[in-house]
Every structure is written in structure tokens, then in C-alpha cells.
Design a protein that fits this description.
By secondary structure, this protein is mostly helical. It contains 15 helices and 5 strands. A 5-stranded mixed sheet has the order 1-2-3-4-5, with helices on one face. A hairpin with an 8-residue loop joins strand 1 and strand 2. Helix 14 packs antiparallel against helix 15.
Length: 380
Amino acid sequence: MAVTMDKKDEMIMRLVHYFITEKNYSPIVVNGVKDEIWLQNQEGPYKIIRINANYIHNREQYEFDILKLRNVMKQVKRKTLSWSMNALNILLDVNENVDLEEQKNIESVALKNGALIKAKPVLKSFPDINHKMLLNEKGIDLMIDVTNDINKKTDKENRVYESIFRPKKIVVTNILIVINILVFLITFVASGANLSALNLLRYGGVNSYFVAQGEVWRLITGGFLHGGILHLLFNMYSLYIIGTQVENFVGKWKYLAIYLCSMITASLMSCIINPNTVSVGASGAIFGLLGALVYFGYHYRIYLGSVLKSQIIPLIIINLLFGFMVSGVDNAAHIGGLIGGLLISMALGVQKKEGKQDRINGIITFSIYLAFLVYLTFFR
């Protein structure tokens, strides 16, 4: 029995094939809709593409259709933590008397009988759209080609995401925890259980005066010292929970770079804001790991958007507020590490998401930030 498809169904398949296989769009599940295809790509010229096969017969129905589109855009915007949202609204069945008037952040295009796309804004964003669509295939051949190509693309993307999110052997985090514990035991025994500020300074604690005099190694050693067993246990627990996630997502070497760079920027910020104190502890570097999680989570917000909003960002805010309210907490180091971790993550890039220009911007921004901290520490 021959399989036939009308022109509208064929155009839907051609468009879906083009946007998914050529432009990296992914389907969105939108509840309560019928005869509509929704696609998204947060890096695309249009973050949402909606293909609507329903008949739009008058102006009122078109206005209601736009209202429905805006509602879905708001939902996707909240879910993906996007600052802005725009959409390409492709309508396949519109009464010729309906005026598709210009809408803010929405480009509406009417197609009929498999016609080519002629709208200039769309052609500007997708100049190859009329050439890369499967225009020659029809019926069952079109269905087979589209299905096979989309399955191949989906399988490839699934393998990429699996390689990023699957649990991996954690090495660097465990080594850092062991180093912190060993350093604590050594200093505890050497000081006769007297981990006073003076003794911590003697063992390598961060202090603005000594750092400015050339003892720059304190920017690192201070991050491995702790002022007591509770201080150590709290930081090591935080490092285990947060560090395991960051190392799993970004890899061992990027993780180590983020940790050490965050430790340095945390120590420098402490020197600037609290020049008369002795700062010790891994919390500045741990806040840098939180900054890295924010940057990574934002790029994979389709998967981690809810975690960012409900766990990571509230955790950062609560800990910073706690630091402001409780004496003896070096919140300057926390802020310095948080910013440093976010910026060095931008410079290092996110796997499968990093663009060359983004990494260049990250390198420049982190370099400026580091130079600013160095200047205020050594030359003010």
C-alpha cells in the first residue's frame, strides 16, 4: 500500500530535519498543544522555533496564537535562565487575509503548499535554509530520510552528553582532601595543638604585609591551612560534595586549574579587604568551584537549570550572608574565589559548548581581574 503525505506534512518534516540536523535545535515537549512542533537552541539566532500546522483564519485567532507563543517563551526563559528570548513562528496554514504584523521578539512567517521561505530576517539568520532542506524527497522516502538523519544526530548528541554527565573516577578531589588533612595534622602536631593566628602565619597563612614583601607562596599555602578541626571538617565535606561534581563535569586538569586559580584570587582579595588579618582555609577555592558550577550549569541549563535555581545559587547566597553575619569568616576570600572560579571557567571553556570568542573573552576578563587584584595587593 502506497504511503502518501500532504504538502503540509512534508514541509513539517523538511523543516524539522533542517533545524535539528543542520542547526542543532532540539525538540521541546509543550503540553496541551496539537499539530505544533517546538524546537529550541539557546545559542541559535532564534532561541525558539515553532512550526504550527493549525489553520489561522482571522486576526483574533492570530493574536491568540501569539499570546500562546509568548506564554511558552516565558516558560522556556525561566527554565533556561535566559536573559532574553526570541522566536521564529512558522505558520503553515494561514488565511491570506490575515496580516502577520510585526511582533516584538517574534518573527512570523506564513508558508503555503511547500513554498520556499522568503522572509529576509529568516534568510539572514539561515541563508541556506532553502538549499539544505530535503526538497526532492517525497512521501515514504522523505519520512525514511528524515527519521534516519534525526536518529543519527540524536545518537551522536546522546553519546556526547553521556560522556560529560556519566560518573567518572574522582582523583584530584581526593588528593586535595588528603593534602589538606596531612597539612592540618603536621601543623597541629608542630604547634602543640596551638593553631593560633601567629602560628598559622608562621606556617604560611595569608597576610597582606608578608605577601606584599614578596612571600607570594602564601597565596597558595594559606589555602591548605586550617584553624581547627571543625574548620577542616566543614571545608573538606564541602570540597568532597562540590569538588566531586566539578571534577566530573569539567575533567581533572581544568578542575585543578580552577581550584588553584580560585585559591589565588581568594587570597589576593583577602589581602586587599582584610590586610591586617591572617587568612587560612580552602573555602575561597571551594567558592571558586561554585563559580565554575554556575558557569557550567548555565551552559547546560537545559539539564541543570532547575539545580542552579534551587540549589547552587541559593547555596552561594546563604553562605555569603552567613559570612557577613558571623565574625571570623573571611568573606572577602569567598567573593574573590567565587569571581575567580567563574572567570577562569570562562577562559578554560565548557566541553562541547565553548566558542573560541567566549574563551578569548574569558582569558581577557580573568587576566584583567587578576591584574587588578595584584595591583591593589602589591602597588597600592
